[in-house]
Amino acid sequence: MQKILPKALLVQDGALSEQQWQTLEALAEAVIPSISLGSSSTPTTHQAVSAVDLEHSKRLVNETSSPGKAEIQLEDAFFAESAASSPAFKDAVQRFIAYSADSDTKAGLVFLLNALATRVGSAALTGRTTPVTQLPLKDRQAILAEWQYAYIPFYRGLYRSFTQLACIYWIRTSPTLGKLLTYPYTPINHSFGPGFPFNFLQMPPSTAKDDMQTITADVVIIGSGCTGAVAASVLAAAGLSVIVADKSYYWPPEYLPMTELGASQNLFHNGGITQVDGGLFSVISGSCWGGGGSVNWSASLQLQSAVRQEWARLSGLPHFTSHSFQADLDAVCERMGVSTSAIEHNATNKILLEGARRLGMAAKTVPQNTGGEAHQCGYCTLGCGSCGKKGPTETWLPDAAKAGARFIEGFTCSHVNFAPATPTCPKRATSVEGTWLSRGSDSIPNTVGTYARRVRLQANKAVILAAGALQTPVLLKRSGLTNPHIGSHLKLHPVNVLGAIMPERTSPWDGPILTSVVSELENLDGRHHGVKLEATTMLPGWFLPLFPWRDALDFKTWCGRMGHAVGYISLARDSGEGKVYEDPKDEGRTRLAYNVNRKDGRHIARGLEALARITWGMGAREVRVSSPGVPALVRGQWSAEEEEEDEEEEETRRLEEWIAQWIEPLVRNGMHSRDAQYASAHQMGSARMGSRARDSAVDGEGRVWGTEGLFVVDTSVFPAASGVNPMITGMAVARGIARGMVKREVGDVGRARL
């Protein structure tokens, strides 16, 4: 039986005041207002639309919901609903601001909301001396439109920030959208898997302010995700005493999948989204027991030959083209049962494969880490309650536990301690320190009854960092390391998104998420930089907010048609790079700086063009991209009496004109149109591996330059972007580093156990 997730405590110090909330609510209600006929609307609170426009929107929604009497009533309620009509909306937005917004974003938002509540501030920001809370709805919407098309980027940023915030949290808290879409909040035919009975170390409460709890092991691993789990399994199997510690918590199968809102708050870093500086790039990374391997989409692609050769050349490490590296790739795939044999493509993946085939594009099925069995769950972004996905919590961490590894959840590592260097040895990592936060009195994290303890984890042989490419560099810098390559060379696999409405119902949240890939455009520069075209997660609260808000009726209509939608990403193997650094005003918070370069932007736009051709050729009724300023491509209305050849010719012309007018400029300009937006779920390269300290952060054995006993095993060490989902590559790298440690620390006895 599915367990309901209790609501975590809200730290009021980080939330908005009531006046600030009223101002934000007034803008959110302008983005997602109650929509009704002009004759029956209240101008201050409702958006008035004509009967023609409202009936047109309802007809489009009708076509994708097959309404009976009950559904028509739902339709009316859906259009009448506003963003803040549900109390859950306020709670969700307040939590985002309190926990997820960085210091600059939070301070900027508070400043704006305070200013908009005054006559002087309103005049400066809106050109009106009346505060927004006192303006009728149409005037608030006019302000949003003025901001959207403003010449000054600051005002366009206001439009983007307020519309995105309102859209994301309305979709995730709407009481009617899911019902209208017939979107089940747990997968159809879902059954809970057995899970593994993890036993986590517990610390007793202490009244002493500086009372430090010390726990000792041979090896301390920070991070329980894909790479830390593999390293723990290898090292524990060799007879070493291992502790795996993670800042997040384990959620057993009966809590999974969570709701979209619950998952963003409990399974992902920073509430689900880390904004790159500037706000045009959203980065998603897992933060739960098992890390990204607990919330990814099962795609299990090995690193391609050309990229392996590039890595070997860039890093000066022939290991990446060696048989031993291939053996590591194969070993991690074998343990998780990676295979294509039991795949049953859902509608989204079928359309991608068939559409590519009709155009002669190279495409293939993507292997899945599902133990060679069918896995029809489209909800794995929210946690895999069936345990069918054989990620870290189903494989490597149980293996490590059975070999004697110990586990700590809720431990936030602040820094690594070192023994001083000697004339014959660099400084040596001896321990890590941090704060452990217990579960609450109801055994749920972040609820009533939690308490904190300072903890030192003593490492007799080695400290391993597997906190991910966003956290590991910050932890290294907090520990006093100054190598300039730490935090640099961040790769993100930037994506842009295309969505299409198909004539048939797709129920896109059903079935496996990512089982197909179009590789036709993966080498657009002769150096194996290009894009892969893949399906994306099709959960309403993750997919729909990716598309720009143009006006309220248009956005609601788009959302109401999702039952017939498909969605794809144009994912670049990036040649550009960025950096990771700690928020100077908020210790422990990660900040990112990254600008998509022109070449990568051109490649992404080429991918969008290909996806438009694929979906249009498969009969799409409407196509949208997540780039602002590009209008939807809408198929014409054709009667049964009209010639099929005439229809095909006219619709081909319509597609080509749309591409020529809207997509080709993006290709030419490298997506450097005004305010182009991107997303990323892959982070790599921010502590890259190499043969020389002047070019890299860690050596070929994963050891941090200038230290002994400190290793990095996560995707931070990638010499360049992988071009494929980094899970398998990261696991293989971690296995190789761990095998090397066994060889040095244990010798032949330990290797014989592997």
Automatic annotation (TrEMBL):
Major localization class: membrane
Catalytic activity: a long-chain primary fatty alcohol + O2 = a long-chain fatty aldehyde + H2O2
Record-listed E.C. numbers: 1.1.3.20
PROSITE patterns associated with the record: RHODANESE_3
Molecular-function GO terms, alphabetical: flavin adenine dinucleotide binding; long-chain-alcohol oxidase activity
InterPro entries recorded: FAD/NAD-bd_sf, GMC_OxRdtase_N, GMC_OxRtase_C, Long_Oxdase, Rhodanese-like_dom
The protein's name in its UniProt record: Long-chain-alcohol oxidase
Species per Swiss-Prot/TrEMBL record: Sphaceloma murrayae
